[in-house]
Amino acid sequence: MSVERKTALFSGINFKQIALFLAVIGPGIITASVDNDAGGITTYTLAGAHFGYSLLWTLIPIAIVLVIVQEMSARMGVVTGKGLSDLIRENFGLKLTVLLTLVLLVANLGNTMAEFAGVAASMEVFHVTKYISVPIAAALVWILVVKGTYSMVEKIFLIASAFYLTYAISGLLANPDWGYVAASTVVPTVSFNPGYLAMVIGLVGATIAPWMQFYIQSSIVDKGIKISEYRYTKLDVIIGCLVTDIVAFFIIVTCAATIYPSGISVESAAEAALALVPLAGQYSSWLFAFGLFNASILAASILPLATAYTICEGMGWDSGIDKKFKDAPQFYTLYTMLIVIGAAIILIPGIPLIEIMVMSQVLNGILLPVILVFMLLLINNKKLMGSYTNGKIYNYISWGLTIAMTLLTLAMIATSIFPGLFM
């Protein structure tokens, strides 16, 4: 190829814009990736194993909801330069902020336990006992954040996010009927079966968690992203949400193509990994288990971090990965406490993990509609957002989604407390 042709080939590429995007990228992709944590992967696994391809269509509206909610959080972080709990404290008072952060603390402690349970379950597929895997995982995630800088930690989180591709490979190894998969993705399957409706609610509940809105806003503030760079942050959010949905898609496809037609009963992602051995081969099983391990350890890092950010901002304490322990003692103490307690409880023999996960889900459900309402009130405050408030159409969509999410959340809470309510 001549020099002239090479020049022509690259003349249309704006390398400055690419460099700016690469500098800004991170918070959106990481937050959305962690959304596919141990609980989320278990939900997608059960959706495919119990209902085949019939729930694939839900991923399209779920992706739209996720993009809208995450974009609003990101926009508030860029424009105000403050975290969500900081804005709630300044605009709605300290008492309400304390109440919200306490509920979030309890919920996220339960979520953190669930992530270490995911670490334990995934490593047991490789015949590693939880008494080895969980302490090592806890030590690694603690050292990473406490000893690292924001830039280093973010790069490691982005690399970990890339390993979600193992689920795509596992899906390809499952050899599904791609024509049927495509049809199931774009043509909704309507069913009023109580189990089907409960799974739809579970998929929505696994998509948007309260901690996500706090974390993405705090990480954007911590990174120091400017308003002039916001379009790249918006793209970061959209890419992250789409990648998250693609991962969920392949998890459902893998289980729908293998476990569903076999009639094998599975109740967790770890059981699904073991069930894949005779159905799709050892490599597919290992990839599925490794994906669960990667998701669990990434979420076990992010959830305590998001909680520490939220509480410190709400209380007006210093926070940030780039700060030393002496500069942000409350931040690092909270982070350490959540990891130690979350990991230690998982090591207790006979601990009721299912009950813990259900209770944390219920608390998340109680918080979510409240957080969405606060977000919409804040983002439409012209004193805070200036010209970056929501437009009318965006507001109609956002409030409609908030009402829908509230109704679904109430249904999710009801089915969590009373499993046979709609039977």
From TrEMBL:
Q: Which GO BP terms, alphabetically?
A: iron ion transmembrane transport
Q: Where in the cell is it found?
A: Membrane
Q: What is its main location?
A: membrane
Keywords of the record: Membrane, Transmembrane, Transmembrane helix, Transport
User: What does the entry list under GO cellular component?
Assistant: plasma membrane
> What InterPro entries does UniProt report for this protein, alphabetically?
NRAMP_fam
> Which Pfam family is one of this chain's hits?
Nramp
Question: What top-level branch of life does the organism fall under?
Answer: Archaea
The yes or no answer to whether the keyword NADP is present is no
Q: How does the UniProt record describe the way this protein sits in the membrane?
A: Multi-pass membrane protein
NCBIfam families for the chain = Nramp_1 (NF037982)
Name recorded for this polypeptide: Transporter (NRAMP family)
Native species: Methanocella arvoryzae (strain DSM 22066 / NBRC 105507 / MRE50)
